[in-house]
Design goal:
Organism: Heterostelium pallidum (strain ATCC 26659 / Pp 5 / PN500) (Cellular slime mold)
Pathway: Amino-acid biosynthesis; L-cysteine biosynthesis; L-cysteine from L-homocysteine and L-serine: step 2/2
Structural class: alpha/beta
CATH architecture of the largest domain: 3-Layer(aba) Sandwich
Radius of gyration: 23 Å
Family: Belongs to the trans-sulfuration enzymes family.
CATH class of the largest domain: Alpha Beta
Largest sheet: 7 strands, mixed
EC number: 4.4.1.1
Mean pLDDT: 94
Bound molecules: pyridoxal-5'-phosphate
Keywords: Lyase, Pyridoxal phosphate
Length: about 400
């Protein structure tokens, strides 16, 4: 062991600890280091110019740029998102939240004078970013219904640079036809971005349908345990990786290595959790559809869903754990249900192993104007139910007793 006896206490306490040789760790190590030492001035200069490292040298410089723990998760997510597509240049950024994944991508892709087409059926935060922040930067935004891709096409202007979709949409569970949107983008040479949080990568992989960029709130199904905030962006090619990476680094969007670790731990059981979410939600959607106190149920796995055929084509092997439904009696009746559940928890967010329920108009989508809310199907009474991995009969029993109280 090297001797530090010539150093004072303070120097020994703060000196870099050397870890030599490989550590045969089965679990992903958390590299908490904000910075990484370089082998030489030349090595440092090369890394600062963001060029590829020479053979045998470390590629790490500073964690706001890249970190070995995050890198491992990013490579893993890329593999999952690419699926059957042939995209050798695909890559992922794991970010500090779903909103940072969305906002940094939009800021990287759009500039003053550009125009972007969004769907009316999107997460409230994305809606607010598109209708409040983008116009302040001189970016023109048009909102269209996702029900027909012709609506996107009709909105395209000579300066349109981005087509944005979310499928299934939060909270209405409307779908966007990914192949049609991807083809439209390719035809007009416009970048397409899709938020696939609600379906999860297990059920929906937009990159397989010629979509250029997929974003997720990894806080949800990717993490799966309601114990982290994170996001991810997977891009289809190197040019987009370079373009978005520039903004990620300068806006400081990278996830902390601790959260990247938790994310990878969650991903280890993603397939198991999603099978259960898919199975439970289908059973519960069928139960709700047949309940006399329920007005309507929105779940892509039900034959009554207006886009069930599309769902069968682009959601495989299942339809996720997200359900929206309306109780007869509107907002007041809905409120009674969410306040009466016992096993299910009244809370925002979704995608965790525990079931969560909320009222979209007064909680997650309260910042969206009532007129736009109603246009996009978010009635005052609409409840959003994130079906967890509990015993489905227990969930049905809980809903039965809550609905009795209406
Ligand atoms: C579909 C969708 N996208 C993005 C977000 C934002 O994610 P985060 O809360 O991780 O920033 C959410 C949050 O609920 C969401 O539901």
């Amino acid at each position: 062991m090297e001797s530090d006896s010539h150093l004072g206490f303070d120097s020994i306490a703060t000196k870099r600890v050397e870890v030599k040789g490989p550590v045969n760790s089965v679990s992903l190590p958390i590299y908490t280091s904000s910075t990484f030492f370089v082998d030489s001035a030349k090595h440092g200069a090369t890394l600062c110019q963001q060029e590829k490292t020479e053979k045998g040298t470390s590629p790490w410089l500073y964690t706001r740029w890249a970190n070995p723990t995050n890198d491992a998760v990013e490579r893993l997510i890329t593999k999952l998102e690419v699926g059957k597509a042939n995209l050798p240049g695909a890559a992922t950024f794991v970010t500090s939240s779903g909103m940072s994944a969305i906002s940094s991508s939009l800021l990287a892709l759009l500039k003053s004078g550009d125009h972007a087409v969004f769907t009316t059926n999107i997460y409230g935060g994305t809606h607010e970013f598109a209708t409040d922040i983008l116009p302040k930067l001189g970016i023109q935004v048009t909102m269209v219904s996702p029900l027909d891709i012709a609506n996107y096409e009709a909105a395209i202007l000579p300066n349109t640079k981005l087509l944005y979709g979310e499928t299934p949409a939060n909270p209405t569970m409307l779908l966007t036809d990914l192949s049609a949107l991807g083809a439209l983008g390719r035809r007009h040479n416009i970048t397409t971005v899709v938020d696939a949080t609600f379906g999860s990568v297990y059920n929906t992989r937009p990159l397989e349908h010629q979509i250029d960029i997929v974003v997720h709130s990894a806080t949800k199904y990717y993490g799966g345990h309601s114990d982290l905030i994170a996001g991810c962006i997977t891009v289809a090619n190197e040019q987009l990786h370079h373009q978005i990476g520039h903004y990620i680094r300068l806006l400081g969007c990278l996830a902390s290595p601790h959260n990247a670790f938790l994310l990878q731990r969650g991903i280890k059981t993603l397939h198991l959790r999603m099978q259960r979410h898919n199975d439970n939600a289908l059973k519960i959607a069928q139960f709700l559809e047949n309940h006399p106190k329920v007005e309507r149920v929105f779940y892509p796995g039900l034959e009554s869903h207006p886009q069930h055929e599309l769902a069968k084509r682009q959601m495989q092997p299942g339809y996720s754990g997200m359900i929206a439904f309306e109780v007869k009696g509107g907002a007041e009746a809905g409120r009674k249900v969410i306040e009466s559940v016992e096993l299910i928890t009244l809370a925002v967010s979704l995608g965790g192993v525990e079931s969560l329920i909320e009222q979209a108009s007064t909680m997650t989508h309260t910042m969206v104007d009532k007129e736009i809310r109603e246009k996009s199907g978010i009635t005052d009474g609409l409840l959003r139910f994130s079906v967890g991995c509990e015993d489905p009969q227990d969930l049905i029993n809980d809903l039965t007793q809550a609905l009795k109280k209406v």
